[in-house]
Amino acid sequence: MDGVPGMTQDPIPAGGTFRYEFTAPHPGTYFYHPHSGVQLDRGLYGVLVVDDPHEPGRYDAEWIVVLDDWVDGTGRTPDQILADLQEGGDDSMGDMHDMGGMEGMDHGSMGGSMGGMHGIEGMQSPLLGGAGDIVYPHYLLNGRTTEDPVTLSAKPGQRVRIRFVNAGSDTAFRVAVGGHRMTVTHSDGFPVVPVPTDALLIGMGERFDATVTIGEGVYPLVATAEGKQGQALAVIRTGAGRPPTGDVKVREPARQVLLGTVLSAAESVRLDPRSADRSHDLVLGGSMAPYRWTINGKTFPDTDPLQLTQGERVRLRFVNHSMMFHPMHVHGHTFALTNSGARKDTVIVRPMATLDVDLDADNPGQWATHCHNIYHAETGMMTTLSYQGQE
Length: 391
Ligand SMILES: [Cu+2]
Fold this sequence. Notes:
Blueprint: E1 28-32, E2 46-50, E3 61-70, H1 78-87, H2 113-121, E4 124-125, E5 129-130, E6 138-141, E7 150-153, E8 159-166, E9 173-177, E10 182-187, E11 190-197, E12 199-202, E13 207-213, E14 218-225, E15 231-237, E16 257-258, E17 278-287, E18 292-295, E19 306-307, E20 313-320, E21 326-330, E22 335-337, E23 343-344, E24 346-349, E25 354-360, E26 365-371, H3 374-378, E27 382-387
Parallel strand pairs: 3-8, 7-15, 12-16, 17-20, 19-27
Antiparallel strand pairs: 1-2, 3-6, 4-5, 8-13, 9-12, 9-14, 10-11, 10-13, 14-15, 17-18, 20-25, 21-24, 21-26, 22-23, 22-25, 26-27
Protein backbone atom coordinates (compact mmCIF):
# COMPACT_ATOMS: atom_id res chain seq x y z
CA MET A 1 0.00 0.00 0.00
CA ASP A 2 2.65 2.45 -1.10
CA GLY A 3 0.18 4.48 -3.14
CA VAL A 4 2.13 5.08 -6.32
CA PRO A 5 -0.39 4.92 -9.18
CA GLY A 6 0.63 2.67 -12.03
CA MET A 7 3.22 0.98 -9.83
CA THR A 8 1.49 -0.49 -6.81
CA GLN A 9 -2.14 0.49 -7.25
CA ASP A 10 -4.64 2.36 -9.37
CA PRO A 11 -5.14 6.02 -8.54
CA ILE A 12 -7.96 6.77 -6.11
CA PRO A 13 -10.72 8.11 -8.38
CA ALA A 14 -12.28 11.51 -7.77
CA GLY A 15 -14.97 10.96 -5.17
CA GLY A 16 -13.57 7.52 -4.41
CA THR A 17 -12.28 5.98 -1.22
CA PHE A 18 -9.23 3.89 -0.47
CA ARG A 19 -8.30 2.65 2.97
CA TYR A 20 -4.55 2.40 3.58
CA GLU A 21 -3.51 -0.08 6.22
CA PHE A 22 0.10 -0.38 7.23
CA THR A 23 2.37 -1.24 10.11
CA ALA A 24 4.48 1.61 11.42
CA PRO A 25 7.82 -0.15 11.80
CA HIS A 26 10.01 2.86 12.57
CA PRO A 27 9.41 5.84 14.83
CA GLY A 28 10.13 9.28 13.50
CA THR A 29 9.03 12.24 11.43
CA TYR A 30 7.42 11.37 8.09
CA PHE A 31 4.92 12.89 5.72
CA TYR A 32 2.37 11.55 3.30
CA HIS A 33 1.30 12.94 -0.05
CA PRO A 34 -0.06 11.86 -3.44
CA HIS A 35 2.08 10.59 -6.27
CA SER A 36 -0.32 11.90 -8.91
CA GLY A 37 0.90 14.66 -11.17
CA VAL A 38 1.88 17.81 -9.28
CA GLN A 39 -0.84 17.53 -6.63
CA LEU A 40 1.85 17.75 -3.96
CA ASP A 41 2.52 21.34 -5.09
CA ARG A 42 -1.15 22.14 -4.47
CA GLY A 43 -0.74 21.38 -0.80
CA LEU A 44 -2.15 17.87 -0.65
CA TYR A 45 0.03 16.45 2.11
CA GLY A 46 0.16 15.85 5.83
CA VAL A 47 2.70 15.06 8.51
CA LEU A 48 2.94 11.61 10.05
CA VAL A 49 4.74 11.37 13.39
CA VAL A 50 5.38 7.91 14.75
CA ASP A 51 6.19 8.13 18.45
CA ASP A 52 8.79 5.85 19.93
CA PRO A 53 7.52 4.19 23.12
CA HIS A 54 11.15 3.75 24.21
CA GLU A 55 12.29 7.27 23.43
CA PRO A 56 13.51 9.01 26.58
CA GLY A 57 11.94 12.26 25.39
CA ARG A 58 14.57 14.66 26.59
CA TYR A 59 12.57 17.72 25.64
CA ASP A 60 9.78 19.83 27.12
CA ALA A 61 7.77 20.83 24.08
CA GLU A 62 7.38 19.75 20.48
CA TRP A 63 6.73 21.80 17.36
CA ILE A 64 6.07 20.61 13.84
CA VAL A 65 7.40 22.97 11.18
CA VAL A 66 6.29 22.30 7.61
CA LEU A 67 7.90 24.28 4.82
CA ASP A 68 6.43 24.78 1.37
CA ASP A 69 6.85 26.77 -1.82
CA TRP A 70 3.51 28.15 -2.92
CA VAL A 71 1.97 29.40 -6.15
CA ASP A 72 -1.63 28.14 -6.18
CA GLY A 73 -4.28 30.84 -6.06
CA THR A 74 -1.95 33.51 -7.43
CA GLY A 75 -3.14 33.26 -11.03
CA ARG A 76 -1.04 30.26 -11.95
CA THR A 77 -1.38 26.64 -10.91
CA PRO A 78 1.27 23.96 -10.58
CA ASP A 79 -0.32 22.17 -13.54
CA GLN A 80 0.12 25.28 -15.69
CA ILE A 81 3.72 25.63 -14.58
CA LEU A 82 4.40 22.03 -15.50
CA ALA A 83 2.73 22.51 -18.88
CA ASP A 84 4.77 25.67 -19.49
CA LEU A 85 8.01 23.92 -18.58
CA GLN A 86 7.16 21.09 -20.93
CA GLU A 87 6.26 23.45 -23.74
CA GLY A 88 9.77 24.76 -23.44
CA GLY A 89 9.40 28.40 -22.75
CA ASP A 90 6.61 29.97 -24.73
CA ASP A 91 5.45 33.46 -23.81
CA SER A 92 3.14 32.13 -21.15
CA MET A 93 6.17 31.54 -18.99
CA GLY A 94 5.99 35.26 -18.37
CA ASP A 95 8.09 36.49 -15.53
CA MET A 96 8.22 33.10 -13.92
CA HIS A 97 11.20 31.89 -15.80
CA ASP A 98 13.11 33.33 -18.72
CA MET A 99 13.58 30.47 -21.11
CA GLY A 100 14.92 32.61 -23.94
CA GLY A 101 17.76 31.02 -25.82
CA MET A 102 17.44 27.76 -24.00
CA GLU A 103 16.51 25.59 -26.97
CA GLY A 104 18.48 22.40 -26.97
CA MET A 105 20.58 23.39 -24.01
CA ASP A 106 21.51 20.61 -21.69
CA HIS A 107 21.71 20.50 -17.93
CA GLY A 108 24.47 18.01 -18.33
CA SER A 109 27.02 20.25 -20.02
CA MET A 110 29.46 21.64 -17.53
CA GLY A 111 29.91 25.36 -17.97
CA GLY A 112 26.96 25.30 -20.30
CA SER A 113 23.70 27.05 -20.19
CA MET A 114 22.35 25.93 -16.87
CA GLY A 115 24.70 28.01 -14.84
CA GLY A 116 23.93 30.97 -17.02
CA MET A 117 20.23 30.47 -16.92
CA HIS A 118 20.05 30.01 -13.22
CA GLY A 119 22.36 32.97 -12.98
CA ILE A 120 19.77 35.05 -14.81
CA GLU A 121 17.12 34.02 -12.35
CA GLY A 122 19.49 34.02 -9.42
CA MET A 123 18.58 30.44 -8.63
CA GLN A 124 22.12 29.43 -7.78
CA SER A 125 23.19 28.21 -4.38
CA PRO A 126 26.78 27.97 -3.19
CA LEU A 127 25.79 24.71 -1.51
CA LEU A 128 23.52 23.20 -4.14
CA GLY A 129 24.44 24.71 -7.51
CA GLY A 130 21.29 25.01 -9.63
CA ALA A 131 18.77 25.40 -6.83
CA GLY A 132 15.44 25.24 -8.65
CA ASP A 133 13.44 25.71 -11.83
CA ILE A 134 10.56 27.77 -10.47
CA VAL A 135 10.26 31.16 -8.81
CA TYR A 136 7.46 31.02 -6.25
CA PRO A 137 5.57 34.08 -5.05
CA HIS A 138 5.27 32.70 -1.50
CA TYR A 139 7.13 30.48 0.90
CA LEU A 140 5.01 29.01 3.66
CA LEU A 141 5.61 27.78 7.18
CA ASN A 142 2.72 25.66 8.45
CA GLY A 143 0.61 26.99 5.62
CA ARG A 144 1.12 30.67 6.38
CA THR A 145 2.91 33.46 4.56
CA THR A 146 5.38 35.79 6.25
CA GLU A 147 2.62 38.41 6.46
CA ASP A 148 0.58 36.26 8.83
CA PRO A 149 2.97 33.81 10.48
CA VAL A 150 2.16 31.15 13.04
CA THR A 151 3.25 31.69 16.64
CA LEU A 152 5.12 28.84 18.34
CA SER A 153 4.91 29.03 22.11
CA ALA A 154 7.04 27.68 24.92
CA LYS A 155 8.24 28.69 28.34
CA PRO A 156 11.61 30.42 28.67
CA GLY A 157 14.43 27.94 29.02
CA GLN A 158 12.45 25.01 27.72
CA ARG A 159 14.07 22.56 25.39
CA VAL A 160 11.92 22.20 22.30
CA ARG A 161 12.01 19.41 19.77
CA ILE A 162 11.31 20.80 16.31
CA ARG A 163 10.25 18.37 13.61
CA PHE A 164 11.09 19.98 10.27
CA VAL A 165 9.45 18.74 7.07
CA ASN A 166 10.24 20.20 3.65
CA ALA A 167 7.02 19.61 1.71
CA GLY A 168 8.14 21.96 -1.07
CA SER A 169 8.20 20.88 -4.69
CA ASP A 170 11.16 22.84 -6.09
CA THR A 171 12.77 24.60 -3.11
CA ALA A 172 15.33 23.66 -0.50
CA PHE A 173 15.17 25.67 2.72
CA ARG A 174 17.88 26.89 5.09
CA VAL A 175 16.30 26.96 8.56
CA ALA A 176 17.53 28.76 11.65
CA VAL A 177 16.24 30.21 14.90
CA GLY A 178 17.34 33.81 15.43
CA GLY A 179 19.75 34.13 18.32
CA HIS A 180 19.96 30.40 18.94
CA ARG A 181 21.85 27.32 17.92
CA MET A 182 20.07 24.04 17.50
CA THR A 183 21.14 20.43 17.84
CA VAL A 184 20.15 18.07 15.04
CA THR A 185 19.06 14.72 16.48
CA HIS A 186 17.22 12.85 13.71
CA SER A 187 17.28 12.69 9.94
CA ASP A 188 14.34 11.23 8.00
CA GLY A 189 13.04 9.70 11.21
CA PHE A 190 16.25 7.97 12.31
CA PRO A 191 18.54 9.12 15.14
CA VAL A 192 21.93 10.60 14.32
CA VAL A 193 24.91 11.47 16.48
CA PRO A 194 23.65 14.85 17.71
CA VAL A 195 25.32 17.83 16.04
CA PRO A 196 24.97 21.47 17.06
CA THR A 197 24.63 23.97 14.25
CA ASP A 198 23.51 27.51 13.45
CA ALA A 199 21.44 26.48 10.44
CA LEU A 200 20.27 23.41 8.59
CA LEU A 201 19.69 22.89 4.87
CA ILE A 202 16.63 20.77 4.09
CA GLY A 203 15.97 19.37 0.63
CA MET A 204 12.50 18.58 -0.66
CA GLY A 205 11.19 15.44 1.04
CA GLU A 206 13.79 15.52 3.80
CA ARG A 207 12.82 15.67 7.47
CA PHE A 208 15.04 16.62 10.39
CA ASP A 209 14.42 16.79 14.11
CA ALA A 210 16.39 19.31 16.14
CA THR A 211 16.29 20.51 19.73
CA VAL A 212 16.63 24.13 20.76
CA THR A 213 16.71 25.60 24.25
CA ILE A 214 14.67 28.76 23.84
CA GLY A 215 15.52 31.95 25.67
CA GLU A 216 12.97 34.42 26.96
CA GLY A 217 11.42 36.78 24.47
CA VAL A 218 10.36 36.75 20.84
CA TYR A 219 12.48 35.15 18.12
CA PRO A 220 12.04 34.53 14.41
CA LEU A 221 12.26 31.00 13.05
CA VAL A 222 13.35 31.64 9.48
CA ALA A 223 13.49 29.31 6.49
CA THR A 224 15.21 31.02 3.59
CA ALA A 225 14.49 29.66 0.12
CA GLU A 226 17.89 28.33 -0.95
CA GLY A 227 19.19 30.06 -4.06
CA LYS A 228 15.95 32.03 -4.39
CA GLN A 229 14.53 35.29 -3.10
CA GLY A 230 12.25 34.97 -0.12
CA GLN A 231 11.71 33.12 3.11
CA ALA A 232 9.18 31.44 5.32
CA LEU A 233 8.70 32.57 8.90
CA ALA A 234 7.31 31.59 12.29
CA VAL A 235 7.31 33.67 15.45
CA ILE A 236 8.65 31.96 18.56
CA ARG A 237 7.24 33.53 21.68
CA THR A 238 8.25 32.74 25.25
CA GLY A 239 7.78 36.24 26.66
CA ALA A 240 7.05 39.84 25.87
CA GLY A 241 8.37 41.53 22.77
CA ARG A 242 7.47 42.86 19.36
CA PRO A 243 7.02 40.29 16.62
CA PRO A 244 9.53 40.30 13.75
CA THR A 245 8.53 41.69 10.37
CA GLY A 246 8.05 39.36 7.42
CA ASP A 247 11.41 40.32 5.92
CA VAL A 248 13.36 39.93 9.16
CA LYS A 249 16.95 38.86 8.62
CA VAL A 250 18.77 36.64 11.07
CA ARG A 251 22.50 35.96 11.13
CA GLU A 252 22.46 32.23 11.66
CA PRO A 253 21.80 31.11 8.04
CA ALA A 254 25.04 32.80 6.95
CA ARG A 255 27.05 31.01 9.63
CA GLN A 256 27.42 27.27 9.99
CA VAL A 257 25.02 25.40 7.69
CA LEU A 258 24.61 21.69 8.13
CA LEU A 259 23.56 19.25 5.40
CA GLY A 260 22.16 15.79 6.03
CA THR A 261 25.12 14.27 4.20
CA VAL A 262 27.52 15.16 7.04
CA LEU A 263 25.49 13.44 9.77
CA SER A 264 26.53 10.13 11.30
CA ALA A 265 24.19 7.34 12.32
CA ALA A 266 23.43 6.78 15.96
CA GLU A 267 24.98 3.46 16.99
CA SER A 268 21.54 1.89 17.47
CA VAL A 269 20.57 2.31 13.81
CA ARG A 270 23.84 1.55 12.03
CA LEU A 271 23.60 -1.11 9.36
CA ASP A 272 25.66 -4.18 10.19
CA PRO A 273 29.01 -4.01 8.40
CA ARG A 274 28.73 -6.02 5.23
CA SER A 275 29.95 -5.74 1.68
CA ALA A 276 27.42 -5.09 -1.05
CA ASP A 277 26.07 -8.12 -2.92
CA ARG A 278 24.90 -5.96 -5.78
CA SER A 279 25.23 -2.38 -6.89
CA HIS A 280 23.22 -0.20 -9.21
CA ASP A 281 24.29 3.09 -10.74
CA LEU A 282 21.65 5.78 -11.13
CA VAL A 283 22.99 8.41 -13.49
CA LEU A 284 20.96 11.59 -13.06
CA GLY A 285 20.61 13.81 -16.11
CA GLY A 286 18.24 16.18 -17.76
CA SER A 287 17.58 19.17 -19.94
CA MET A 288 15.44 22.28 -19.81
CA ALA A 289 14.39 22.21 -23.45
CA PRO A 290 12.82 19.81 -23.83
CA TYR A 291 12.08 19.75 -20.12
CA ARG A 292 12.88 16.20 -19.10
CA TRP A 293 14.79 14.54 -16.28
CA THR A 294 16.35 11.14 -16.60
CA ILE A 295 17.76 8.19 -14.71
CA ASN A 296 20.31 6.26 -16.76
CA GLY A 297 19.23 8.25 -19.81
CA LYS A 298 15.57 7.29 -19.65
CA THR A 299 12.38 8.87 -18.37
CA PHE A 300 9.78 7.04 -16.28
CA PRO A 301 7.94 4.80 -17.12
CA ASP A 302 10.62 3.81 -19.65
CA THR A 303 13.36 3.66 -17.01
CA ASP A 304 14.74 0.19 -16.38
CA PRO A 305 13.63 -1.24 -13.01
CA LEU A 306 16.54 -1.91 -10.65
CA GLN A 307 16.38 -5.63 -9.94
CA LEU A 308 17.23 -6.90 -6.47
CA THR A 309 16.98 -10.18 -4.62
CA GLN A 310 15.55 -10.34 -1.14
CA GLY A 311 18.21 -10.56 1.52
CA GLU A 312 20.89 -8.75 -0.43
CA ARG A 313 22.90 -5.76 0.72
CA VAL A 314 22.47 -3.35 -2.18
CA ARG A 315 24.55 -0.32 -3.03
CA LEU A 316 22.93 2.50 -4.99
CA ARG A 317 25.36 4.93 -6.57
CA PHE A 318 23.75 8.27 -7.49
CA VAL A 319 25.85 9.90 -10.20
CA ASN A 320 24.67 13.45 -10.86
CA HIS A 321 25.51 14.49 -14.42
CA SER A 322 23.43 17.64 -14.21
CA MET A 323 24.06 21.14 -12.89
CA MET A 324 21.18 20.97 -10.44
CA PHE A 325 20.90 19.23 -7.09
CA HIS A 326 18.46 16.35 -6.77
CA PRO A 327 16.99 15.17 -3.44
CA MET A 328 16.80 11.47 -4.25
CA HIS A 329 14.19 9.44 -2.40
CA VAL A 330 13.78 5.68 -2.10
CA HIS A 331 10.43 4.24 -1.04
CA GLY A 332 10.08 1.32 1.36
CA HIS A 333 13.63 1.48 2.77
CA THR A 334 15.87 3.67 4.85
CA PHE A 335 19.33 3.49 3.32
CA ALA A 336 22.67 4.28 4.95
CA LEU A 337 25.10 6.84 3.58
CA THR A 338 28.27 4.87 2.95
CA ASN A 339 30.53 7.69 4.15
CA SER A 340 28.87 8.29 7.53
CA GLY A 341 26.34 5.53 8.06
CA ALA A 342 23.53 8.05 8.56
CA ARG A 343 20.18 6.45 7.87
CA LYS A 344 18.04 8.43 5.45
CA ASP A 345 15.41 7.90 2.80
CA THR A 346 15.97 11.18 0.96
CA VAL A 347 19.39 12.61 0.25
CA ILE A 348 20.69 15.65 -1.58
CA VAL A 349 22.96 14.77 -4.50
CA ARG A 350 24.87 17.86 -5.52
CA PRO A 351 25.61 18.84 -9.13
CA MET A 352 28.24 16.65 -10.81
CA ALA A 353 28.66 14.72 -7.55
CA THR A 354 28.52 11.00 -6.84
CA LEU A 355 26.96 9.67 -3.65
CA ASP A 356 26.74 6.04 -2.50
CA VAL A 357 24.10 4.58 -0.23
CA ASP A 358 23.57 1.03 1.02
CA LEU A 359 20.33 -0.69 1.90
CA ASP A 360 19.19 -4.11 2.96
CA ALA A 361 16.66 -5.64 0.60
CA ASP A 362 14.29 -6.70 3.36
CA ASN A 363 11.00 -5.34 2.11
CA PRO A 364 10.03 -6.96 -1.20
CA GLY A 365 7.85 -5.05 -3.60
CA GLN A 366 7.85 -2.38 -6.28
CA TRP A 367 9.37 0.72 -4.75
CA ALA A 368 9.48 4.09 -6.44
CA THR A 369 12.93 5.67 -6.45
CA HIS A 370 12.85 9.25 -7.61
CA CYS A 371 13.90 12.86 -7.30
CA HIS A 372 11.76 14.70 -4.75
CA ASN A 373 11.67 17.77 -6.96
CA ILE A 374 8.12 17.02 -8.02
CA TYR A 375 8.63 18.60 -11.46
CA HIS A 376 11.67 16.42 -12.05
CA ALA A 377 9.86 13.28 -10.91
CA GLU A 378 6.82 14.10 -12.99
CA THR A 379 8.89 14.61 -16.14
CA GLY A 380 10.83 11.41 -15.82
CA MET A 381 13.31 11.22 -12.93
CA MET A 382 11.90 8.09 -11.39
CA THR A 383 12.56 4.38 -11.49
CA THR A 384 11.67 1.29 -9.47
CA LEU A 385 13.45 -0.91 -6.98
CA SER A 386 11.92 -4.22 -7.87
CA TYR A 387 12.03 -7.56 -6.08
CA GLN A 388 9.84 -10.45 -5.09
CA GLY A 389 9.60 -12.04 -1.67
CA GLN A 390 11.21 -15.48 -1.29
CA GLU A 391 8.69 -18.34 -1.01
CU1 LIG B 1 15.73 16.47 -9.48
